Amino acid sequence: MKSIIDIMELSTAEIDELVSTALDIIDNPAKYSEKCRGKKLATLFFEPSTRTRLSFEAAMYELGGNVIGFSEASSSSASKGESVADTARVVSCYADIIAMRHPKEGAPYVASLNATVPVINAGDGGHNHPTQTLADLLTIHKEKGGFENLTVGLCGDLKFGRTVHSLIAAMSRYSGVKFVLISPDELKIPEYIKTDILDPKGIEYVESASLEAVMPELDILYMTRVQGERFFNEADYIRLRDTYILSTEKLAVAKKDLCIMHPLPRVNEISVGVDADPRACYFKQVLYGKYMRMALILKLLEEAGK
Ligand code: NCD
Q1: For a Cys staple, 59 with which of 117, 223, 231, 294, CB 3.0–4.6 Å?
Q2: CA-51 nearest atom, ligand 1
Q3: What is residue 306's predicted lDDT score, i.e. its pLDDT?
Q4: Which domain holds residue 153?
């Protein structure tokens, strides 16, 4: 049973296939509107979410399917002490596919070992967020025409930002990609991303504390929120949360075809004045996320013989 826990479980050929399915869905929505008739998606969200959960739900409805689930741990049996493994076994009796978000790293993986239907990781702690990366990849593909020869700036909370970790892993497979890692010292990228992904592949990257200094060289600027909920100390969060605020002034030296992305929710990292700039892609990114989730649900159900 194929589940998607880490973006690297999808080959580049499979990513290409998902991108082309998503593009076909965008062009021919009616062709897909009955594909999941009679099928159920369970959204098991043990951590708050607006975009990701509703995106999965909208994706399943647009495929003609149904959705069951919960949106907070307190309204599930987890509050009675049920294990993730048991929840996965139980929900497999009701649903054809599961999307799970959990504050603990590895929880969706445990679910996938115990479920009898495919499990999609919808974000696990500070670790991984493969379907956000699928949204990011479709955005990059639409805006840049492909994934090669791009200088990708990632800015903000590179330590706890799971979307950053998954995106670096995914983009590191394409040739000519260079990363510019922009963060305060306390929120630098975890060492394992360097030792397991960047260094072995000889991928070029630089670390910078200044967004202004690196702005002119970027093709993509991926802004992120400082992940307050993963901090141990409120004072540190307050001190670091507004380190980077992207403004129209700062964009004056950026490339004319820069693609500005953000997984959302935005707090203060991008001032609203930037929204009107044609380079702002973060709301399109939300829409692309729904199409990529549709493509992924179709692929996993087909592979599961459902
Ligand atoms: C991200 C997440 O949950 O990691 N949001 C999302 O899924 N679109 C980013 C964030 O919460 O900052």
Answers
A1: 294
A2: 8
A3: 82
A4: 131-285
- How far is the centre of ligand 1, averaged over its atoms, from the C-alpha of 126 (Å)? 10
Instruction: Look at the block and give the residue holding tokens 């980077």.
Output: 244
Ligand 1 centre and the CA of 265: distance in Å?
A: 6
Which pTM value belongs to this model?
0.96
Identify the residue with better confidence: 79 or 176. 176
Residues 138 and 131: their CA atoms lie apart, in Å, by 11
95 and 187, same structural domain? no
Ligand 1 atom with minimal separation from the 52 CA: 7
Residue among 35, 51, 230, 255 flagged as catalytic: 51
For the question of residue 52 being annotated catalytic, the response is yes
Q: 91 and 137, same structural domain?
A: no
Q: How far apart are CA 243 and CA 156, in angstroms?
A: 8
What are 241-270's pLDDT values in tens digits?
999 999 999 999 999 999 999 999 999 999
Q: How confident is the model at residue 289 (pLDDT cuts 50, 70, 90)?
A: very high
Report which DSSP code applies to 196. Answer: I
**Position 113 in a domain:** yes
Same domain flag for 189 and 149 = yes
**Domain of residue 98, CATH code:** 3.40.50.1370
Q: Is the CB of 130 under 6 A from ligand 1?
A: no
pLDDT at residue 1 greater than cutoff 70:
no
Alpha-carbon span 255 to 218, nearest angstrom: 7
Q: For 71-122, how does the pLDDT look when each residue is reduced to its tens digit (9 = 90+)?
A: 988 877 777 789 999 999 999 999 999 999 999 999 999 999 999 999 999 9
Q: What is the pLDDT of residues 231-248, one digit of tens each?
A: 878 999 999 999 999 999
What is the Cα Rg of the chain in Å?
19
Q: Same domain for 79 and 144?
A: no
CA of 116 to the centre of ligand 1 (A): 27
Q: Assess whether 112 and 173 both reside in one domain.
A: no
Neighbours of 38 (CB within 10 A): 10
Closest by Cα among 169, 145, 136 to 282? 136
Is the CB of residue 126 below 6 angstroms from any atom belonging to ligand 1?
no
Q: What is the mean pLDDT of residues 38-59?
A: 95
